[in-house]
Amino acid sequence: MLRRVRFGTGGPLVWTESHHSLGPRDGIAAAKVIENLRLDAARHLLERSRLTLDQVAVETGLTDARRLREAFLRRYRQPPQAIRRQMRIEGFAA
């Protein structure tokens, strides 16, 4: 399942396919694992591309810029624009 989320292979995931490999017994819900992988990918794109926030959101399965922002605030406690700005200041972005 993690490979499918990371690399976007095999079409959309549905709970019936993935619930056997991750769950509360593992200490983390499958939805949280998927969100974390999407956020990792989104951060990578923000740091290394010139894609808009909406484009980053769509590419990583976070739907739109609003949901991307909400997820970033939950995980990183700062908006995606702040992370992109910081990387540009440090000279890492494209």
Automatic annotation (TrEMBL):
A GO molecular-function annotation: sequence-specific DNA binding
Keywords: DNA-binding, Transcription, Transcription regulation
Keyword Transit peptide: no
Domain HTH araC/xylS-type: 27-86
Protein name: Helix-turn-helix domain-containing protein
Record organism: Paraburkholderia pallida
